[in-house]
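Narrative of activities, Objective 1.

The group set out to show that a structural description can be obtained from nothing but a protein's sequence at a throughput compatible with the screening campaign. Below is one input-output pair from the validation batch, recorded exactly as produced.
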Amino acid sequence: MSKVLQAHIVLFVVGAFYAINYIVAKDIMPTYIGPSGFIFYRVFIATILFWIVHRFISKEKIQREDYPRFIQCALFGVAMNQLFFFNGLNLTTAINASVIMTSNPILVLLASAVILKERITPAKTIGVTMGVVGAVLLIVLPVILGMSSMDWKQGDSLGDFMIFVNALSYGLYLISVKPLMAKYEAMTVIKWVFLFGCVMVLPFGYSQALVVDWTAMPTEILLGFAYVIICVTFLVYFLNVFAMKTVSPSVVSAYIYLQPVLAGALSIGLGKEKLHWIQILAAALIFGGVYLVSIRKSPLANND
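Output recorded for this entry:
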């Protein structure tokens, strides 16, 4: 088996891990643990794991003048990204969340144009417009039409908006972390970003984390919790690093488009959700927009 094929298999597994996460996390929240408390445990445990692994594989230290950028990356890449995602997913549906997340490459393009002064071509402009229209359609149209829960399984527009903010914050993180990734080893960057992020998450998730009744959790819920921590937070990072040794970051980012397909298929297959024409239309607009944006796109577009 060639290294390129191995990389694509790994990336498919990563996409599947993320897609399953939409279903697993919703089964845990908010019955057994609040979304902010869930993030506290996720970030805290992952931080410990990253620091332990880094101790064995690297002795690299960071320079004091880079602390502000590490803190900025922690804000966008861990605190805002994770808190808005889990709180949004707690309110909205897995299909909506996964579709909105595909707007990430579009948001990265916009952030690159504003911060890095990268040129936006006419095709990318059309793509951005299509993506924004698709995301707004998914969030606003059900409210305008006054659709009932019988017609549309919907958390509320706030949940969809939170997922959108999550995608935006991750886009800003990708722009912010670029200089650090060029200067330090990837594990060095991620361990410090998670450490600062853990401090930021603490005030928001501490109270929910304290009231968790672990003895009341069924075995399948505990396994789901472990899955999110180990597979979606820790293992996925190593798999992405393995893949990027062979393929470019832009190829890695392309696998984000598997998430709505796999998450939607799982939700529908398990009878948790039904597919609606609004979701199909919004997905078509976002996918079409992402395709136009992805033409010779920046390698920054990657997934959380």
